[in-house]
Amino acid sequence: MFTAGFVASQNLLNIWVLIFGGFVCAVLGDNVGYFTGHKFGRRLLQKEDSWLFHKKHLVKTQSFYQQHGKNTVVLARFLPLVRSFVPIVAGIV
Fold first, then answer.
1. Structural domain count, the chain
2. What is the pTM of this model?
3. What's the pLDDT tens digit per position in 73-93?
């Protein structure tokens, strides 16, 4: 996005195309992450522990999402590293 913003500031890319494309890609990225977590994440809950996910953490996350799910998804859009994992974890739980 930084590079695209720079290119748009040099009038080599239309800013409205950039805004629309960024919006579409953000929505599609979240949906792909959610679908991936929903489709393949339940296998993680069947295992006791894996090298990346621990069952007790996913159970805690599930109760957290039941209480604060909507706010978590919206606020996570503004946190750079968290933004990548929230849709996947939301799909799992």
1. 1
2. 0.75
3. 888 888 888 888 888 888 888
